[in-house]
Write a structure and sequence with these properties.
The complex is a heterodimer of chains A (370) and B (431). Chain A has twelve helices and two strands. In chain A, 73% of the residues lie in helices and 1% in strands. Chain A is globular. Chain A has 370 residues and is mainly alpha-helical. In chain A, β1 and β2 form a beta hairpin. Chain A has a two-stranded antiparallel ribbon. Chain A has one domain. The longest helix of chain A is centred in the C-terminal third of the chain and has 46 residues. Chain B has 431 residues and is an alpha/beta fold. Chain B has two domains: 196 residues, no CATH class; 152 residues, GMP Synthetase, Chain A, domain 3, CATH 3.30.300.210. Chain B is built from 17 helices and 14 strands. The chains are: A mainly alpha (370), B alpha/beta (431). At the A-B interface, α5 of A face α1, α10, α14 and α15 of B.
């Protein structure tokens, strides 16, 4: 059923944009400033450029496999075993980040808004939204993205614009922050901030124009890179290092301080709305990709029956970390360390091997015909 | 059939998400006690004396008679080792839950500020009910007494009263309008230091007391210009006894000194925070005892330019301040509206303000050793690496700073008069 679903390039780019950029409203500006100090924006800029260049390589290699997802490529490279192993790897990646982000969003909303509500109830509410999204499928999710993303982007830009009176360029000095070594070393690990790019490899079969894969990825990376650089730069121009490492939700903090005249202030409740919308879209997409990857990995006929078992699993996993700090630690020290390899390096390896095998098969075929 | 059931279930889930998401945290506004101002004093046995000025919403809504603050607010004081611990005690005895979302002012006693304020600021920044734009003031006496004496006369809403009073620095220049987030940011910054509004209660009861107060504040020219004093000595007789004038200067989290209202005006000028204020100075070429003054409306023409060069490990600070203004009043017989006289007034004003700015900066260096004017950020911009900047230790270097100040005042307008014809030119000196 899902295979017949088609989504446009803009819809796919919106999904990619939200999945990569939603971390802006979580702890992204703070963690990058912990890694590179006042030069965090420079590190993010370098990361964005590197990811863009790596994606150019990937999209060039992918041309031969247009219309196939990465599991098809894995199968072409290593046969059925390859498909299952690659499927499990991507399944683990999506499961890990989805449960971590679910817990983060729930904890964040508990801290700033629903202070008395048990975290499990907040998580349950998010889970309900995830079920609805995953049940309706990628077409519904992508169309919701098209409606929501321009609004979310505009709201985000408004927060940055309203903070202009507080920007002070001297706050991003010393210009190279914690040093070139720190920028390069942590920059490699922080390539993982683009790990949701993996979603594009599984959106491939749904694209109306199969060859426009490269364009979708390039636009997605360009705009998410732009937002990530912009938020880290603006945040640091308001809160200098090391104060920038103290705030739990940096963009929320920026929204709290907006005051234009005596009447236009306290706009952060609007921020919570933006934030919850982005979270629902992210988590629904996450659950969809988890069930889709599982279905494709094990060649199952139906995807929808997988939704409930996986949401129970994600719910349970999200409650495992003892506290908010453990959640953040598990994201920083486990996920970020490895996921850039899975998203950016593994596809290149698979594509090179699959291309080589395809070429040698072709030669073999030609030799047999001769 | 099954398809319909699924659709209904999905619909129910979606609707329940919209309508039930806030149930656990639901609290009615009339179940909360809104704190308008919070006071902190030093208590015994390491306890804090926490004073809350609570709004009485019904009284504010109905509108008490002006000055009847007792009807619009209610005061409560508790001793506890921590602020939120004290609030917990208060919550156990009043019928409503204390809420800080409408708090406009935090008053800390000078005694406590001199010991360090980091432990309180941490609470204000961390606890989400405190707004980042809440003003912070240092009371020379007890914060509790300050709040007790707060009797807004012209405003029935106590919250609005505090907000408007604190914002008045934009058109008076006599206080710094520090908010808790701004204060915290400067306190944590490696290139400048924090200031807070200086508050006190006036002891002046009647007009007869004014002469004594002014006599104590005369400058080297034997005069007292407006703002040449702090909150305690303001020569004002007014029903509301609380005063704000000048600034409390900090180094790190400890208060190290005070600025008068006029010095605060120079602080705003150098740090680029100057609004549009009225500034009085003696007339050019007039002996001090003649008491002839010019009042100008001054505002920032351009952002102040600060350049720092390090010579022999000593910072040489070049500051260029550009101001523009109008002539509002001339009390003497001279006309400064046009031509050479206008030029003369501009040059005189530039030099007069320059001398005062230099003496203010020297005070921050010699008396406080505290860079409150963001001078360090010009130095910070010359560094590439954080580690080098920290090793440079700007806070230590500031005590050796030398100041070269250039002030340029441009008079753009002369009010609704283009010139002034003195009466003595028409009728001679009348004896």
């Amino acid at each position: 059923m899902d295979r017949k679903t088609e989504i446009g390039n803009f819809e796919a780019a919106c999904i990619l944009l939200n999945m990569i950029s939603s971390k802006i409203i979580l702890d992204f500006p703070r963690t990058v400033s912990e890694d590179a100090g006042s030069a965090a924006w420079l590190m993010v800029l370098l990361d964005s450029v590197v990811v863009y260049l790596l994606f150019l390589v990937i999209s060039r290699l992918y041309r031969k496999f247009a219309g196939n997802d990465l599991l098809d490529v894995s199968e072409a490279a290593f046969g059925e075993t390859g498909r299952i192993i690659a499927g499990i790897i991507f399944l683990i990646q999506f499961m890990y980040i989805t449960h971590v982000v679910l817990r983060q969003f729930a904890e964040d909303i508990k801290v700033i808004s629903l202070a008395s509500t048990p975290v499990s109830v907040v998580i349950l509410l998010f889970c309900a939204g995830m079920i609805v999204g995953a049940y309706l499928g990628i077409e519904a999710i992508s169309r919701l993205h098209v409606i929501a993303i321009p609004l979310l982007a505009a709201a985000f830009l408004l927060i940055l614009l309203f903070n202009i009176p507080r920007y002070d360029i001297s706050k991003i000095s010393p210009w190279l922050g914690l040093g070139i070594g720190a920028i390069l070393k942590n920059g490699v690990i922080n390539l993982s901030y683009f790990s949701e790019l993996a979603a594009l490899f599984f959106l491939m079969p749904f694209l109306k124009k199969k060859n426009s894969f490269g364009g979708v990825g390039r636009y997605g990376i360009f705009f998410s890179g732009l937002f990530l650089v912009l938020v880290s730069l603006c945040y640091l121009m308001v809160y200098q290092y090391p104060m920038s490492t103290e705030f739990f939700l940096p963009v929320y903090q920026m929204a709290r301080t907006i005051k234009i005249g005596r009447f236009f202030s306290r706009i952060e409740p609007a921020f919570i709305l933006i934030w919850a919308s982005s979270a629902f879209l992210y988590l629904s997409s996450g659950l969809f990709f988890i069930t889709y990857i599982f279905q494709r990995t094990f060649n199952l006929k139906y995807r929808k029956p997988l939704i409930v078992p996986f949401i129970i699993l994600i719910f349970a996993l999200s409650l495992l970390p003892e506290n908010l700090y453990s959640t953040l630690q598990s994201e920083m020290h486990v996920y970020r360390l490895l996921s850039w390899l899975v998203t950016l390096i593994l596809p290149i390896i698979l594509l090179v091997i699959a291309s080589t095998r395809a070429k040698s098969n072709k030669h073999r075929e030609e030799a047999r015909h001769d | 059939m099954i398809k319909h059931i699924k659709t209904v279930l999905l619909l129910l889930v979606t609707i329940s998400m919209v309508f039930t998401s806030g149930c656990f945290d639901a609290i009615e506004p009339d179940e909360m006690a809104y704190v308008v101002a919070l006071g902190l004093d030093d208590g015994t046995d390491d306890n804090l004396i926490i004073t809350l000025l609570l709004a009485v919403p019904i009284a504010v809504g109905v509108g008490p008679e002006p000055g009847e603050i007792d009807n619009a607010t209610n005061m409560i004081t508790v001793a506890a080792p921590t602020i939120l611990g004290g609030i917990n005690v208060i919550n156990s005895l009043i019928s409503k839950r204390v809420n800080f979302t409408q708090t406009k002012l935090i008053v800390i006693s000078k005694e406590l500020a001199e010991k360090g304020v980091e432990r309180f600021i941490n609470t204000f920044i961390r606890f989400r009910e405190f707004r980042p734009d809440t003003y912070i003031g240092i009371s020379r006496g007890r914060a509790e007494e300050f709040l007790k004496e707060s009797k807004p006369v012209l405003e029935i809403n106590p919250s609005k009263h505090f907000e408007l009073v604190m914002e008045s620095f934009k058109y008076t220049g006599f206080s710094s309008g520090s908010t808790i987030e701004e204060f915290y940011s400067k306190m944590e910054c490696t290139c400048n230091e924090a200031v807070a509004v200086l508050l006190d209660i006036s002891q002046i009861e009647e007009t007869g007391d004014l002469a004594g107060v002014l006599a104590n504040r005369k400058n080297s020219d034997g005069e007292v210009l407006e703002g040449d004093y702090t909150a305690t000595d303001m020569p004002v007789v007014y029903e509301n006894k609380v005063r704000q004038m000048g600034s409390a200067v900090f180094k790190g989290d400890k208060m190290v000194g005070e600025l008068t209202g006029r010095e605060t005006f120079y602080y705003l000028m150098v740090s680029g925070k100057l609004g549009e204020i009225r500034y009085t100075m003696p007339e050019p070429d007039i002996a001090a005892h003649s008491r002839a003054y010019v009042t100008l409306r001054l505002s920032r023409a351009r952002k102040p330019e600060v350049r720092v060069k390090i010579k022999d490990d000593k910072p040489v600070v070049n500051i260029r301040i550009s101001l523009e203004g109008d002539i509002l009043a001339v009390t003497g017989n001279n006309d400064y509206s046009t031509g050479e006289s206008l030029k003369k007034l501009e040059n005189y004003a530039s030099d007069y303000i320059r001398r005062d700015v230099v003496s203010f900066l020297e005070k921050t260096r010699d008396d406080f050793n505290s860079d409150i004017c963001f001078i360090g950020k010009s130095v910070k911009k010359t560094f590439l690496f954080w580690e080098d900047w920290i090793k440079f230790n700007w806070t230590d270097k500031y005590k050796n700073a030398q100041f070269v100040v250039d002030v340029e005042v441009k008079i753009r307008r002369s009010g609704v008069m283009v010139k002034q014809v003195p009466v003595n030119q028409l009728k001679g000196d009348i004896k």
